[in-house]
Sequence to fold (123 residues):
Amino acid sequence: MRVFKSNHFIRYARSQGLTDDELWHATTRAVHPDLDLCLGEGLFRQRIPRPATRHRLGYCSILTYRTSACAVVLYGFPRNKPDELDAGEVMTFRALVDQFVRLGDDDIAILTAHGKFIEVHHG
Fold:
């Protein structure tokens, strides 16, 4: 699976000290039944545990899948934020999902080359 992070998430992950390995494992876990929450229309919320505390005081991410082979992490926030996103946030993310699912591999390569997405590497 290829996992990408958006510009917004890159800044958030850097400020929180999230590693690509942690992000990759949380995102690929979302393909399996332990997905935290389906927000509908290709939008998902997935927990990212902090290594030292496991599931307590971790992070959440908002992500989307184009196929089971490609995902983009759009947004991150502390797990202690209220679980519900407001209607404006959901509409914004759904608009991004609509754009993302239309992208082909060439489009993703261009966005990556321009620094809009960065591929997450693990291992």
Residues 33 and 46 are 11 Å apart (CA to CA). The chain has one domain: 2-119.
